């Protein structure tokens, strides 16, 4: 609710405070269900009168009012004349605009708030428009016109050059106030229209509607003040100072109300229209031809009629607008998404490496700054400042619907991310930024990670020609490492022994690749095989953390967690892959046991014919046997329930601590 301090009321001659006024007008508000006239038709007529009257200066000129067809409209003439009399006969003589205003409310008890405001404005417009019409016709010297003009005191408006100059300024200010009041009442009507087609409990609309009674009061009070000004325009006497003070006060107040109403209407429309527009965007994206240019045009350059500026695509340091998006046809697009406040200089350098390596190749880069309000001070300048540091494409003025899509479908949470889209317009990676930061142009190897192929991009940092050959030829490879030299050597000996038997009996070649020793507590950024490997694992986990986990991504994240749980285990860790396809991963002790007990499950291989499947099945059996045998009976110390997760090995609850995830003696998890 709008409110004014009681001292300000008293200072301007008001005897009642705003809360008291609100109480009075609400107590006397008993609107009929069916109004006696069409409120919007009356407003349309009134708007036409005011439009032409306030555009008429004291200098005579003919503005034609275009006729409208209102065959079925019946003017509430008696009500208009009654209100007009209240304004023109009492406002001045009783010297109380507040009393006059409340008197008008008393006459309009059975009308809605919107109808009260429109009737008061129409009553004023009828008198005001009539005066200006007669002033225009007065020069024609028609006897009827002249007689009517004299009765309405029109000649007093034109009685002297000195009076003309004085009145001209008064009329200009008066017309501004009348038009402002018109706009306020129009906003009140628009809120009523929104209410008729929207859930009345809509939060922003409900809040705006609460102000309607007091806004109606201030509209009518302003109209009364304007009527007083007109009274003195047609009198050959000085206007009292109290009238000028009142006029200044209500003019400021009605301007403040209009500004607030415009903000409220903008918020209401945005909240009401956004779901509809967003649904429209989703439908367009779903039905867009699977081609990068169509998806880009539909999603990124989506045209929202309610939004002030359309999205634009510009290129290079020049900031020249791109009108033909066919330059993106058949390409991958890396969308670098950020706010204007968290663009990273390091990210720009990483992206430049990609840009320079793919400029004439298969991937284009597009910067998408997420800006909710471009009118906010300094935003345009901030955009251009960053823009000049980027040689690739950029999009400005994204529609609110597109921003909502990026937040909900691409999971943007105000920190930079990079979404990779293929030439068919399908997203292949929801956050390739970690890979770009680590691998630069080689990030393309990560564009389609899944539960089976994640090992390939992870080992890029430690790739050798021999390993590359093994992976391309689809060999079975044991990647292993740990924190203890003895355990790693012990695993190597067991694996070498087992691979001889496997080769002799199954004719299957087994390869070993030692990732290296990783000292406990050592930084993952250390320049070593193990450091690079675990950096990639952590980066993979960070990427997966930006997904809403479901299906394959859930399974992949579990595998990564499982491998992280083995990182500091004394028995080491191991990943078995067939080429670039992961078979299983786990603790060194469990993988060693599977190899030790090869004789117990080799028949299964002869029966099923798949070494990898049988190895994985027996590995899971070993874990299950260990869990049920009581090896994990050491128990857990549980903390806050919201920190609970399950051990990816034995499935029992674990607690997040400052040092590590505690499960039990065989499942000590490192923080991730």
From TrEMBL:
TM annotation in the entry: none
UniProt-listed Gene3D superfamilies: Glutaredoxin
Residue span(s) of domain Sieve element occlusion C-terminal: 458-664
GO biological process assignments: phloem development
Sieve element occlusion N-terminal domain segment(s): 18-283
Protein name: Protein SIEVE ELEMENT OCCLUSION B-like
